[in-house]
Design a protein that fits this description.
heterodimer, A: Rossmann fold, six-stranded mixed β-sheet, B: mainly alpha, two-stranded antiparallel sheet, 4 strands
């Protein structure tokens, strides 16, 4: 598969009010292939949200280069129309569901993106219906968004992005404000979009169980790529994670602790049922 | 407690008036207002009252709701009626009632004329019909958001004069969208402040106003943050102003819209004609 996102020595600093440059990203080189499901981990202030905003041109990097689908978006010759084409291809879902819904009726909110793109009316109708069906909110089409639950609002926000027919969706801590049920709804939607519709997913999160779900994990620390690999690879290096204030999923942590104590248990086990099986095996060996 | 607040009193329904195109409704209410102000004699006022009743019946809004909607203007009605009764002076006829009240060396003569009473009744009727007519055509039967769309469409010729019509409509839409969100937030902040010992219900007016300050400040901070977030989310969804935008729902005139507009125009013309035909000689 070809690369969809590519960054090279990406650097960004926010200009503070007192003119003290605040370095958010110092050197990020990263590639994401088309159709990949990548989790971006990092503690607060690691620069992971900044990275997201750079990828659809909400922010313009202060150094380094970015390619989206083979086109360099940091090219000075990149026009405004090109910029909107990038925003259409790389959709973004944010943390607070309330602050990203524009209209007072669900279906009109979902239509907002296609309307901005100048899509003909019949086509908007079809896209809105499709998008609402994909996120399972079709029966709420005529509802007012403020009456919905957090998870439902977030699914409407996702539908609003899907209706633009993007090739990649970046979730910027999209589950952080949701209750466990809402989180699960949004996670299932992400899986579905990736598996069924081949949409590239970048899930920026600080929930380890969400990260374990992805094909690949990128750990950002201090504005740099700190680790990059499959969930098993990342979570088998628990000490390295602890060193930057992160933890592996609970099961992985337990197996690691027992492994350090000399039990014959695998490291980097991210699948909960596999963890349970390994524990049962060791338990039986010891009681036998 | 605020959760079910309905904005602008919209009552969803499926009457002929509900189904009218909102632009036609705005035009119809303007014509209706003109008709109301043109009425001059008893027959045209009777026609106005009948038309208001007819509108209520067609819209299937309950009579109680309409009457309750008149409550806020009750004071104005009584006040203007009193002014009309006591301050109208007619030179053509003798007063129906006159008193002599000496105020120091000056003799105050409050008097009531037939014309004053007529004026009082007609003015009250005019205001009542005006309120009923516009609320039936607009507020009761049109959701605020469709009204915004209609205003945008009707004002769109102003775009030629570089008036940012689309932007105003967008601002209206966003304001409507965020009113429930901000109300909910206000409630949360008030509860949080109450939990810290704030008292919003006791004390003098000044004290209560002061107590609201710790509510307003976090509310504003949060509103600004929301505005910033929303702006970024809108940019992410390719918003770039009204240029080249299409719409999911386009407003369309139907035959019934033209029919109703025609009836309103006919009604207006009728009022003009009746004004010149006054068999009982009762009029202002």
């Amino acid at each position: 598969m070809r690369n969809f996102i590519e960054t090279e020595h990406l650097q960004y600093f926010y200009d503070d009010v007192d003119r003290q440059a605040d370095l958010a990203l110092s050197d990020v080189s990263l590639t994401v292939r088309e159709g990949e499901y990548v989790a971006v981990l990092g503690h607060n202030g690691s620069g992971k949200s900044t990275l997201a905003k750079l990828l659809n041109m909400i922010l313009i990097p202060t150094g380094g280069r970015i390619w989206i689908d083979g086109r360099e978006i940091t090219d000075p010759a990149f026009s405004e129309d090109d910029m909107f084409a990038v925003r259409r291809d790389v959709g973004m879902v944010f943390q607070n569901p309330d602050n990203q819904l524009v209209a007072t009726v669900v279906e009109e909110d979902v239509a907002f993106g296609p309307e901005n793109l100048g899509v003909p009316r019949e086509e908007i109708r079809r896209r809105v219906d499709d998008a609402l069906r994909i996120v399972g909110m079709e029966s709420y089409a005529r509802h007012a968004p403020h009456r919905l639950s957090g998870g439902q609002k977030q699914r409407v926000a996702i539908a609003g992005i899907i209706a633009m027919m993007p090739r990649c969706i970046i979730f910027d801590e999209a589950t952080a404000m949701l209750d466990p049920l809402g989180r699960r709804e949004v996670m299932q939607t992400m899986d579905l979009l990736n598996r069924e519709y081949g949409i590239t997913i970048l899930n920026i999160t600080h929930y380890m169980d969400e990260a374990a779900h992805a094909d690949r994990i990128v750990v950002i620390n201090d504005g740099k790529v700190y680790m990059d690999g499959t969930p098993t690879e990342i979570f088998s290096q628990i000490e390295r994670l602890h060193a930057v204030g992160l933890e592996a999923p609970q099961g992985t942590e337990l197996l690691h602790a027992l492994h350090t104590d000399g039990y014959d248990l695998p490291e980097g086990c991210v699948d909960e049922s596999a963890c349970v099986e390994a524990l049962i095996r060791v338990y039986k060996e010891h009681t036998a | 407690m605020f959760k079910d607040v309905t904005l602008g009193q919209y009552f969803p329904g499926d009457s002929v008036i509900h189904r009218m195109d909102p632009r036609a409704k705005i035009i119809a209410s303007i014509l209706y207002i003109i008709a109301v102000f043109c009425a001059r004699n008893i027959i045209s006022f009777a026609a106005l009252a009948a038309s208001a009743l007819l509108l209520i019946l067609i819209s299937r809004i309950s009579m109680m709701t309409v009457l309750r909607g008149l409550k806020p203007i009750l004071f104005i009605l009584v006040f203007t009626a009193l002014i009309n009764i006591f301050l109208t002076r007619s030179t053509e006829e003798a007063p129906l009632w006159q008193a002599n009240i000496p105020v120091f060396s000056w003799n105050w003569q409050p008097s009531i004329y037939r014309e004053g009473i007529l004026r009082a009744i007609f003015t009250a009727l005019r205001v009542i019909v005006l309120i009923i007519g516009t609320s039936i055509f607009l507020t009761y039967t049109t959701s605020p958001i469709t009204l915004t769309d209609a205003i945008e469409e009707l004002l769109s010729p102003l775009k030629l004069l570089h008036v940012p019509v689309h932007d105003f409509a967008m601002m209206m839409t966003i304001a409507l969208r965020f009113i429930p969100t901000l109300i909910e937030e206000t409630e949360k902040i008030m509860n949080a402040q109450k939990a810290r010992g704030a008292d919003f219900s006791n004390g003098s007016l000044v004290q209560r106003a002061k107590a609201l300050l710790p509510v307003l400040i976090p509310l504003f901070v949060s509103a600004f943050k929301r505005a910033g977030d929303l702006a970024i989310a809108m940019e992410c969804r390719c918003y770039r102003g009204g240029e080249g935008r299409t719409k999911l729902h386009k407003l369309e005139y139907h035959f019934s819209d033209f029919l109703i507009l025609f009836l309103v125009v006919a009604f207006m013309a009728g009022i003009f004609v009746i004004n010149h035909y006054n068999p009982m000689g009762i009029g202002i």
